[in-house]
Amino acid sequence: MNTLEMPKLQTSLDDEVEEVSKMLVEAASLNYPMLSGILQAIIQAGGKRLRPRMALLAAGVAGHPEAIDHLKLKQVAAAVEMLHTATLVHDDTIDEALLRRGSATLNSMLSGGTVILVGDYLFAQSAILITRPGNPHVVQIFAECLATICDGELTQIFSTRHWKQSREEYNKRIYSKTAALFATACELGAIMGGADEELVGRLRRFGHLLGMGFQIVDDIIDFQPSEITGKATGGDLRQGIVTLPTMLFFEMAEPQDADFVKKVVGNKAASDADIQKAVELIRNSKAFEAAYTEAHDFIQRAKDCLADEAESESLHSLLKIADYALGREK
Amino acid sequence: MNTLEMPKLQTSLDDEVEEVSKMLVEAASLNYPMLSGILQAIIQAGGKRLRPRMALLAAGVAGHPEAIDHLKLKQVAAAVEMLHTATLVHDDTIDEALLRRGSATLNSMLSGGTVILVGDYLFAQSAILITRPGNPHVVQIFAECLATICDGELTQIFSTRHWKQSREEYNKRIYSKTAALFATACELGAIMGGADEELVGRLRRFGHLLGMGFQIVDDIIDFQPSEITGKATGGDLRQGIVTLPTMLFFEMAEPQDADFVKKVVGNKAASDADIQKAVELIRNSKAFEAAYTEAHDFIQRAKDCLADEAESESLHSLLKIADYALGREK
Q: Whole-model pTM?
């Protein structure tokens, strides 16, 4: 998704993340050698473990180290990452993720039905992990998050190739796609850390706003030249998905330029040249900078949620993740 | 799956099942008119609500009517049915189920990606329903069941087109496919009914054995002429899936007949005539009757689990379901 290195975070975090990764590997082990290998590759390709890190750090911010059951906290962190992985598998984007890391793609090795089942299996494993701590409230927050994610993906399918979308629709979509799980990671971490209700709410809000900013940055990166990002440019436009830079472009551009991009969005068979032209129109417009400003505002509002929190290594690391989310674009 | 009418069960049950159905409809409502209609059709096409009936009756057998929270019990029953529906959607068999009821098929109306998401959405709804009663033990049993189902479906994919399978493998497969959810329905119903641990275990065992017999009968029905069953004959053989009648046939038939069927199983491009011939060889063999005897034995063992139970309307209805499961074949 980016080439920017993760910043150095709280030292003890890496060990905990390592243990979360071990839990994930164990939960994804199966008796079929071939499939097991693929599952392990998916789990290992898990990248930066951003979501479990957020859960672990939110628990740290809660500030009751003596109250934390570290095994249960790690189970929750692992469940969040497993859910993320399962949605990636069903989202088909895992192909791209694996490809980026030089592995074969999932769909090239397995039939469609098997891919569905692999995703289902990972869903089931995330459900098992989230029940381990024996906290029904935690399970319920997790299940609601899953429903939100599914609802959002369905919305995306039904809004594809429609250039006319409200800001409200876009915000709802990126919330479902990204911010809901960020919010859940922070909320569950805070609960496992023994935070009071007010702080749980604030950490959830932090995750929510951070996730919104993170996804807008992702949507911006999609317009960057592939030399910089290492992935194809304009993937969203090609798929008929309207994201913030495009929406702002429709509002701010000359009518004939806006019309051109609208036609590209609505056209399944748009040529590479037309897509490229649309990408460049947007990237070189004021809309592009305006989208970045919006991402910046979300991240700032996220950080503001924790402005009055007592200094701690966990807090410091959480704020670094917020800066990292924004900095990926530069 | 069959033309046999469900037997008359405990009178109060129909009202409870009706309320469970309402819960399912509500949980599957979405804001996209077209998709919402399809989801409702899937839910309405839910057939006999066998699994929620088992959960409700198991609670009745537990014999502590004063201890039962009927809302929570119905939530559990609805979660079980929702999970069943979600697996059907991903299993693609929902197409067949809808077709049988004269509706359009799911895959003909939606793209593959949407079908996956619809299934995921129903999974999420089942997860939400199962968290409602706030009992982590219940959620955990449910999540383990989901993992078992997924594992079994993966096994099925990896064993397709291999004629050589052990009885152990077959039993594991039909347990995952059918008996695990039957067992879970009874176990969760028993827990919600306030049964002690011993009775919970016995009701789970009842559901398990009943599910084994039920699936064997299903596998037998697959060989019956379509004039009787209303569905295509030999679907399993066509897909290269070896079930009990075929396994017993390999053990009991003349070598040249067994070899013929083995070739059909292993051949993706087997002709309709060859499949029909294989079906008839099996249906007219002693293996076919032997498979039925095995189903009968499972059902009998299921009923034996409850032999010492005090007479009650719930018990009576549960035993009727067992007889019904077996009778579908005749």
A: 0.82
Structural domain count, chain B: 1
Distance CA B86, CA B147 (A): 13
| Cα gap A87→A261, rounded to integer Å | 30
Chain B residue numbers with beta carbons less than 8 Å from the beta carbon of A134 are: 136-137, 140
Residue A106 — very low, low, confident or very high, per pLDDT cuts 50/70/90?
Answer: low
Q: Does the distance separating the beta carbons of A149 and B124 come in below 8 Å? A: yes
Residue B184 lies in a domain: yes
Q: Is residue B178 part of a domain?
A: yes
Taking only the tens place, the pLDDT of each residue in B234-270 is: 888 988 889 999 999 999 999 999 999 999 999 988 9
* Contacts of B171 by beta carbon, 8 Å cutoff, 6+ apart: B212
Let me know if residue B144 belongs to a domain.
yes
Rounded Cα distance between A82 and A119, Å, is 10
- Please indicate, yes or no, if residue B147 is contained in any of the structural domains: yes
What are the backbone dihedrals phi and psi of residue A234, each rounded to the nearest 5 degrees, phi first?
A: 75, 25
Residue B175 in contact with partner chain A when CB distance is under 8 A: no
CA atoms within 13 A on the CB side of A169: 18
Residue A5, Cβ density class (10 Å: 0-12 exposed, 13-18 middle, ≥19 buried): exposed
Q: Residue A308: helix, strand or coil by DSSP? A: coil
ipTM of the complex: 0.72
Cα gap A82→A75, rounded to integer Å: 10
| pLDDT tens, position by position, A226-263 | 777 767 788 889 888 899 999 999 999 999 999 999 99
CB contact under 8 Å between A135 and B136, yes or no, is: yes
